[in-house]
Amino acid sequence: MAQARREGRLPQVLLISGPTGVGKQRLALWLGQLALCERPADEPCGVCRSCHLVERLAHPDLHWFVPIPRPKAADNEKQAAEAAEALALVMAERREQPLYAPPDGMASHSLASVRLLQQQASLTAVEGGVRVFIIGDAERLIPQESSQEAANALLKLLEEPPAGALFVLTATDPRRLLSTIRSRAIPLRLGRLPDAEVRAFLSARVKPAPLGAALDERVTAAEGAIGPAVGAYGGDKARDAAAALIEAVTAGATVRLERALRQGAFAARGDFSAMLDALAETLGDAAREASGLPSRRPIPEALRRRRDAGALLAALDRVAEAREAAAGNVNPQLLLAVLGEELAEVL
Ligand SMILES: [Zn+2]
Predict the structure, then answer these.
(1) What is the pLDDT of residues 119-144, one digit of tens each?
(2) How far is the CA of 21 from the centre of ligand 1 (A)?
(3) How far does residue 49's CA lie from ligand 1's centre (Å)?
(4) What pLDDT does residue 256 have?
(5) What 3 state SS string does 197-264 have?
(6) How far is the CA of 105 from the centre of ligand 1 (A)?
(7) By C-alpha distance, which of 13, 9, 8, 40 is closest to 28?
(8) Residues 258 and 161 placed together within one structural domain of the fold
(9) 162 and 131, same structural domain?
(10) 13 and 104 in one domain?
(11) What integer pLDDT is reported at residue 236 of this predicted model?
């Protein structure tokens, strides 16, 4: 990318994909810093005014969009203002805690965010140079909202990017992006890091540094991504909830119903989505093991007894459908009751 920038061949629209927590938005920021640097070489110089502003997430020509709760205001202008406020809040948090966790499961790029992006893209650069727009977790763009208005507005921007604008989209699963948007971007796939690199990062950057078996465990669980390794992810809670659901589903109808009706625990919709994600991961791991591949994490006892990869994949399909429905306005309790029945059928 540094070479492409030097030779003036850097695409205006990039899509960085790769595993959760592997550093996609981090790389986007690096590229933004390089594009805005006053003395760029193969790396951002790190000492010029622009570089410092990017590092403090305060550069007026660097716009970082992340999924946020859907604005509640009634009219468009107020919604855009609300989105700007929510984004500013996230950026303030990231200034304090640069090793941030993934966004809340229900957070999205709503039409308000896209309108804000349009507004900012229509202005000229404050510093007179390049403008950088990072759209993190781009698959969180809600296509069904306002009859695709948000997606179409973004599409229009990406089809004819304003001069001097650089758009970097990131996505864990680019297949969940609209194909029309995906086709406008030059793809860049990030792989998992070698364990040695994760280990070196943990030893050097995490205080207090984990040692011995604790270090080994974290390196293995991270699966080549720094994000999960630094432990900001709270994945354990969601995984425990997913395992409890699997136990309930395989234990019979009465337990199943009870379990679904006790979902006050998912008062926050984000927790619910995180549980669904963990459920999909767990089923995927079980399917791997049933196919004779090594599983990456311990599998709940109830799934261990099911050696039929086909059934596990069917279950995975049902969870994917529930995940889609959860992005809309469906009551989690109702969704879980239906999902419980469906899983009991296939498992
Ligand atoms: Zn610089």
Answers:
(1) 999 888 787 789 999 999 998 886 55
(2) 26
(3) 7
(4) 66
(5) HHHHHHHHHCCCCCCHHHHHHHHHHHCCCHHHHCCCCCHHHHHHHHHHHHHHHHHCHHHHHHHHHCHH
(6) 35
(7) 13
(8) no
(9) yes
(10) yes
(11) 67
Distance 7 CA to ligand 1 centre (A): 18
> Is there a single domain that holds both residue 175 and residue 267?
no
Residue 205 and residue 168 share a domain: no
338: pLDDT confidence band, cut at 50, 70 and 90?
confident
User: Ligand 1 centroid to 52 CA: how many Å?
Assistant: 7
pTM of the entire structure? 0.73
Query: How far apart are alpha carbons 279 and 313 in whole angstroms?
Result: 12
* Cβ contact 141:109 at 8 Å: yes
Distance 300 CA to ligand 1 centre (A): 50
Domain membership of residue 201 as a residue range: 195-229
Vertex 56 angle, CA 50 and 59, to 5°: 45
What's the 98 CA to ligand 1 centre distance in angstroms?
19
Distance 34 CA to ligand 1 centre (A): 7
248, two tokens: 């309930």
185 and 218 within one domain:
no
Ligand 1 centroid to 212 CA: how many Å?
39
Cα–Cα distance, 135 to 121 (Å, whole number): 13
